[in-house]
């Protein structure tokens, strides 16, 4: 049994219209700990009917919520932020139990997730419109911004709190109610957030969490229901495309944070030690399971061997184990499917001539633990070149010129995050502009913060989250044309 100082944060009901409810059918599904496969608790397996009820509750609650002043909404968000931070330890234990990440990373995510709530509590008060100089005498042109309406949020398991707050905080700040469907692997963090939202004083219907073991029926209702005006989704490109198609019939606004295939380029003139630190942080955070994790390490000929040796030393020192245990740096992968993908990428690379520098196998701890791995001599013919590995595998590609590096980096349908290390100021400007990515880390491996816009180009998605841009995605622009003046 999980030891929480506030046991009410572990919920086994979904949260709809201010009430904690079971599925109509009474069905539940298991939430398990990926470190040992043990059952944590069972939660409701909901479907279309419960989802419709949540949407209707949200729609009813919308009018009074948007009618509040921005300062009033901001005050509720600030209380939510304070409650999340006060519960940081419990939320981290809950997250590590259901998701597997090391406890220190889970604590970091709680703070990172809470930071979006704080940021958008502040931004709520800065939703400004415009007055435009009129084009005809006797007219006035005014632009206002209004909340889009009921928002559906479908979120992944890799950041069980931050992916929810990054969507819901700007929506709530703007005046929109939300219906959240968290990933089936990690509903407990979402339910704990709902408990804290209730305590913070969000009115019934403003923040709803629907749990489902099979997401199709819930996703079907969220995308088909005309009362939902916007869908914000983070997850795989495949599911994102499906949801986008499903939203077409009702022309919903969309924010999509989809897959990446992040290049991490190390030029000859890089500070190699700094590049290793950045590569470790970018590649191995969350055991390689983030959409901005370095997926392809492109290393220039002249420093290839030196970089590989330094990286191997750092990877060899990583401590693997259950996330709740002390100083562990690498937890288990989320499930067996994730391990199979990692194994497939390694096998495909090795079959085509890549070399395992370190790791390459399942870890002796068993279950879904995997050895942190480095592959050398990886080429564009191999699986990691095309697909996101989403695991602790660092594939090293070799390049000769800057032009070649940029070409390789952009040779993908994805465009979320890219990284490069160089100390040549001209190259820094040239490569920054040439990379077709929404986020570029220059001599930095960790780029996420609530104050900057997060999002991708190409098939990595639509819209931006966080920063002053993040609230715009939840606002409609209205133009008032006044005559007879
Ligand atoms: P991952 O590969 O990271 O698990 P998914 O795209 O499968 O990514 O999952 C991200 C989120 O999308 C999860 O909440 C999942 O339940 C949800 N999801 C998956 N398939 C569907 C679907 N057909 N309709 C609605 N939501 C879905």
UniProtKB/TrEMBL annotation:
<dbReference type="InterPro" id="IPR010102">
    <property type="entry name" value="Succ_semiAld_DH"/>
</dbReference>
<dbReference type="GO" id="GO:0005829">
    <property type="term" value="C:cytosol"/>
</dbReference>
<feature type="domain" description="Aldehyde dehydrogenase">
    <location>
        <begin position="20"/>
        <end position="479"/>
    </location>
</feature>
<dbReference type="InterPro" id="IPR050740">
    <property type="entry name" value="Aldehyde_DH_Superfamily"/>
</dbReference>
<comment type="similarity">
    <text>Belongs to the aldehyde dehydrogenase family.</text>
</comment>
<dbReference type="InterPro" id="IPR016162">
    <property type="entry name" value="Ald_DH_N"/>
</dbReference>
<dbReference type="InterPro" id="IPR029510">
    <property type="entry name" value="Ald_DH_CS_GLU"/>
</dbReference>
<dbReference type="InterPro" id="IPR016161">
    <property type="entry name" value="Ald_DH/histidinol_DH"/>
</dbReference>
<dbReference type="InterPro" id="IPR016163">
    <property type="entry name" value="Ald_DH_C"/>
</dbReference>
<feature type="active site">
    <location>
        <position position="257"/>
    </location>
</feature>
<protein>
    <submittedName>
        <fullName>NAD-dependent aldehyde dehydrogenase</fullName>
    </submittedName>
</protein>
<dbReference type="GO" id="GO:0009450">
    <property type="term" value="P:gamma-aminobutyric acid catabolic process"/>
</dbReference>
<dbReference type="InterPro" id="IPR016160">
    <property type="entry name" value="Ald_DH_CS_CYS"/>
</dbReference>
<dbReference type="InterPro" id="IPR015590">
    <property type="entry name" value="Aldehyde_DH_dom"/>
</dbReference>
<dbReference type="GO" id="GO:0004777">
    <property type="term" value="F:succinate-semialdehyde dehydrogenase (NAD+) activity"/>
</dbReference>
<dbReference type="Pfam" id="PF00171">
    <property type="entry name" value="Aldedh"/>
</dbReference>
<keyword id="KW-0560">Oxidoreductase</keyword>
